[in-house]
Write a structure and sequence with these properties.
Layout: H1 9-59, H2 85-103, E1 110-111, E2 120-125, H3 126-129, E3 142-149, E4 162-169
Parallel strand pairs: 1-2
Antiparallel strand pairs: 2-3, 3-4
Helix pairs in contact: 1-2
Length: 171
C-alpha cells in the first residue's frame, strides 16, 4: 500500500487562489490609504493657509476686511506705518491668494468663484455663512473659506467631490 505524502495539485491551486484574493485586498487597501493620505495633506495645507490669514487679519484688525477686493494685490504695502489699514488688508488678501495659488499645495484653488462649483479662497461675514466652522459668534466675526477638489471624488455616500475648510476669525 502506497502512503500519500504532500499536497495534491487541487489543494495547492485552492491555496494559491486564497492567497491571491488576500493580496488583491491588501493592494486595494494600500491604494485607498494613499488617496486618503493625500486628502489629509490637502486639509492640513488648507488649515495652515487659513491660520496664516487669521494672523494677518488679527494683526490688522482696523481694516474693513469685507471691502477687500478679491483680485490679486498690486500694491507694495509691507508695513502698516507705510500705508492705510485698508491698503494693507488688500495687500494681505492678495498675498494670501497668491500663496494659495502659487504654491500648488492644494490643487484647483482660485479666488472668489462666480459659481459655487469652482475651488476658492474667500472671506465672508460669519453670520452669513452659518456653517459648523463659522456660526457668527460675534457680529463682526469673519469666516475664512477654503474649498478644493478632493482626491477621492466619490460622489455618493459620505464623501463628496469638494472639501471645504471654514475658520471663524474675530478681528
Amino acid at each position: 500500500m502506497i502512503k500519500a505524502r504532500g499536497f495534491t495539485l487541487i489543494e495547492v491551486l485552492i491555496s494559491m487562489v486564497i492567497l491571491a484574493i488576500g493580496l488583491l485586498g491588501l493592494a486595494a487597501m494600500q491604494a485607498i490609504s494613499l488617496r486618503d493620505n493625500q486628502d489629509a495633506y490637502y486639509y492640513q495645507q488648507a488649515t495652515l493657509l487659513a491660520y496664516e490669514m487669521q494672523d494677518r487679519i488679527r494683526g490688522n484688525n482696523t481694516a474693513n476686511w469685507l471691502g477687500v477686493a478679491p483680485n490679486y494685490s498690486t500694491t507694495t504695502c509691507v508695513a502698516t506705518p507705510g500705508c492705510s489699514p485698508d491698503a494693507m488688508a488688500i495687500n494681505d488678501y492678495g498675498y494670501w491668494q497668491n500663496s494659495v495659488k502659487g504654491t500648488n499645495t492644494i490643487p484647483g484653488i482660485l479666488p472668489k468663484p462666480k459659481d459655487a462649483s469652482t475651488k476658492m479662497v474667500d472671506i465672508q461675514l460669519s453670520s452669513g455663512v452659518n456653517k459648523s466652522g463659522c456660526v457668527g459668534t460675534y457680529p463682526t466675526s469673519l469666516c475664512l473659506i477654503t474649498t478644493w477638489g478632493r482626491t477621492n471624488s466619490k460622489t455618493s455616500g459620505t464623501l463628496s467631490k469638494d472639501s471645504t475648510f471654514y475658520l471663524e476669525v474675530t478681528p
